[in-house]
């Protein structure tokens, strides 16, 4: 019901936006999904500036969220581009739409080094450089004392109710962490999880637990992903690790499932933006540290994606100049 | 005219610097004193863990028996004792025993802390008008400021877990006991006070044997309110990692688990009703006692 409502309102908004304005002869009218989290917001704003100034498109940003935006793109062909689309949620439907030629997943990795998993703080690795793998860390619960029971190691998991809470609890069993002297730290909420990292980093304490990138915290504290070894197969992940504990009797330890993040565009984008536009989206790959750095900048300056886009285009020319043609580069630089 | 249409605003950069300055100042403070403050609260943490372990690991018939006994001591009503025991049995039967015990532990300890801190403050307020004037706005702030606002500094200072949760609960639940202690002592009959003065009672004696006994029912109403407000904070406390009935509620909020949320919510209600009835009955009994003496 709720999804339907969101969808409907999204469609109404789309309906309004798609009939306003006149098509630009050089490129045409394009709408870009402006997702409701910081990195996607930033990417949408950068795409807007580059496509407008460099390629003469007329770009409209449309508010979005993963599933409503995807459904709308698939059914109505609007918005034209989803810059940072987390495809795990709809991989089957996406593949189908791509096969039908309705959608194109242009860029299969718009941000490098992204994903979920276990992380530690860099200060920990400076002191104990051997702790790069999960196996090595799990042998040293004494370095990560649990706040309520210092004799055990504290393993920070996802807030209650998140899907990753289930997988972390199953991982806890799969890696036999209890017998290795570990205990789960309930984080309670996203604020609690973030706060526990921030506190540990500011105080120089060790921290071990679940997090994901691209995020401001990863960038701000330079957190380092833990090597969790081999991925133990789709069946183990889909039918056990991501299920409630009682439905997952024999979890096998595994690295985190790969997060499929694509830049997805509609057929309309291919037609109106043409080869140049497609080429740009294909080449547009943000190195992970650059993205995290921009998120930190946004947090520190309490800035919006639009401010961050200008800042990025001004200061990181060597990153984005590789994405665009020489002519476009000149035009973008002139517009700043 | 421009002045009238646009409210004078601090320069954006200056405002940002101010915010950054506050944040950094607090971070430095927490870096310098965080560990000391944390170890200051250690005894409280150990007591909480001890109580929770005691409740969870003791055989359940003993725990329920003790709860029944406490209900009896408080209320002297066999109906309430039976009701209490049935409630705990049902909570256990529906698989909420462990969480419920964790909640009982944190609520009891935070009520205790509130009483130990709150009653002396209330007495101080009743003795001095200046103290009352300066403390009242603080109490107003504690009751109305959104808890998420003070959770941020508490996490930075103490991390996540039981102690910060306890503090968050106490900030919200402390004011009633302070207010009602103050009120109760101020409302004590002037004649009773004069009589005690005529017998040459020192201020301490006056307080101990006249004012506090006579205001006990009001103070008890404050304690009762404090317990109720502490229970209302269970879910918020869980948001910073306190185990208990709040965790399954958070799970059900994000997944729309209707039944899970309902059951745990009702368990909190059951706890609240038990605590409320027992303390109320106790308060009434003290009052009866006074009536007889009069």
CATH architectural arrangement of the largest domain in chain A: 3-Layer(aba) Sandwich
CATH superfamily of the largest domain in chain A: Periplasmic binding protein-like II
Please tally the β strands of chain B and state the result: 0
Query: How would you describe the shape of chain A?
Result: globular
Q: Could you tell me the number of beta strands of chain A?
A: 10
Task: Point out poorly predicted stretches of chain B.
Answer: none
User: What is the CATH level 1 assignment of the largest domain in chain A?
Assistant: Alpha Beta
Poorly predicted sequence stretches spanning 5 or more consecutive residues of chain A: 15-25
Q: Average the pLDDT over all residues of chain B and give the rounded result.
A: 90
Helix-strand pattern of chain A? HEHEHEHEEHHEHEHEHEHEHHHHH
Predict the CATH topology of the largest domain in chain A.
D-Maltodextrin-Binding Protein, domain 2
Q: What is the overall shape of chain B?
A: globular
Please describe the biggest sheet of chain B, giving its number of strands, its sense, and whether it closes into a barrel.
none
- Oligomerization status of the protein chains: heterodimer
The CATH C-level class name of chain B: Mainly Alpha
- Class derived from helix and strand content of chain A: alpha/beta
């Amino acid at each position: 019901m709720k999804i339907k409502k969101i969808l409907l309102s999204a469609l109404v908004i789309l309906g309004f936006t798609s009939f306003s304005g006149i098509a630009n002869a050089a490129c045409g009218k394009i709408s870009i999904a402006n997702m409701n989290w910081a990195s996607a917001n930033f990417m949408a704003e950068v795409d807007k500036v580059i496509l407008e100034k460099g390629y003469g498109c007329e770009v409209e940003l449309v508010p979005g969220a993963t599933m409503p935006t995807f459904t709308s793109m698939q059914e109505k062909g609007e918005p034209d581009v989803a810059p940072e689309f987390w495809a795990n949620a709809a991989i089957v439907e996406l593949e189908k739409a791509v096969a039908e030629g309705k959608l194109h997943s242009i860029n299969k990795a718009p941000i490098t080094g992204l994903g979920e998993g276990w992380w530690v703080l860099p200060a920990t690795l400076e002191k104990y450089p051997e702790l790069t793998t999960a196996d090595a860390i799990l042998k040293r619960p004494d370095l990560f004392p649990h706040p309520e029971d210092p004799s055990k190691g504290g393993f920070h998991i996802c807030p209650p109710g998140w899907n990753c809470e289930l997988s972390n609890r199953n991982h806890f069993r799969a890696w036999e962490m209890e017998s290795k002297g570990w205990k789960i730290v309930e984080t309670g909420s996203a604020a609690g999880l973030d706060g526990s990292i921030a506190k540990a980093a500011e105080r120089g304490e060790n921290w071990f637990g679940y997090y994901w990138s691209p995020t401001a915290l990863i960038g701000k504290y330079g957190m380092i992903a833990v090597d969790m070894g081999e991925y133990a197969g789709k069946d183990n992940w889909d039918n056990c690790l991501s299920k409630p504990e009682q439905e997952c009797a024999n979890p096998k330890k595994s690295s985190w499932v790969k997060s499929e993040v694509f830049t997805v565009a509609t057929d309309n984008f291919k037609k109106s933006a043409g080869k140049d536009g497609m080429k740009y989206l294909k080449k547009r790959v943000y190195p992970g540290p650059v993205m995290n750095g921009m998120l930190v900048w946004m947090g520190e300056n309490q800035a919006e994606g639009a401010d961050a886009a200008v800042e990025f285009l001004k200061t990181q020319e060597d990153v984005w100049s590789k994405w665009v043609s020489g002519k476009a580069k000149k035009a973008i630089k002139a517009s700043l | 005219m421009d002045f009238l249409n646009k409210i004078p605003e601090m320069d954006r950069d200056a405002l940002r610097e101010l915010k950054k300055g506050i944040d950094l100042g607090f971070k430095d403070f927490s870096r310098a004193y965080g560990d000391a403050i944390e170890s200051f609260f250690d005894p409280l943490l150990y007591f909480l863990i001890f109580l929770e372990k005691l409740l969870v690991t003791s055989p359940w018939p003993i725990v329920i028996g003790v709860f029944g006994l406490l209900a009896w001591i408080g209320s002297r009503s066999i109906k309430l004792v039976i009701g209490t025991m049935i409630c705990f049995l049902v909570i256990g039967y529906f698989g909420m025993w462990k969480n419920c015990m964790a909640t009982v532990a944190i609520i009891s300890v935070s009520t205790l802390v509130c009483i130990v801190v709150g009653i002396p403050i209330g007495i101080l307020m009743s003795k001095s008008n200046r103290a009352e004037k300066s403390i009242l706005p603080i109490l107003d702030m504690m009751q109305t400021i959104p808890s998420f606002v003070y959770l941020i500094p508490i996490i930075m200072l103490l991390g996540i877990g039981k102690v910060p949760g306890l503090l968050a609960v106490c900030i919200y639940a402390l004011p009633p006991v302070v207010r009602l202690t103050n009120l109760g002592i101020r409302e004590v009959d002037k004649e009773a006070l004069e009589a005690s003065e005529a017998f040459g009672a020192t201020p301490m004696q006056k307080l101990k044997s006249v004012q506090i006994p006579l205001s006990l029912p009001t103070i008890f109403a404050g304690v009762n309110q404090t317990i109720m407000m502490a229970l209302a904070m269970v879910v918020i406390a869980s948001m910073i990692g306190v185990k208990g009935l709040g965790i399954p509620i958070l799970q059900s909020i994000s997944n729309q688990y209707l039944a899970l949320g309902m059951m745990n919510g009702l368990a909190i209600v059951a706890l609240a009703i038990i605590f409320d009835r027992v303390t109320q009955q106790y308060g009434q009994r003290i009052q009866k006692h006074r009536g007889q003496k009069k």
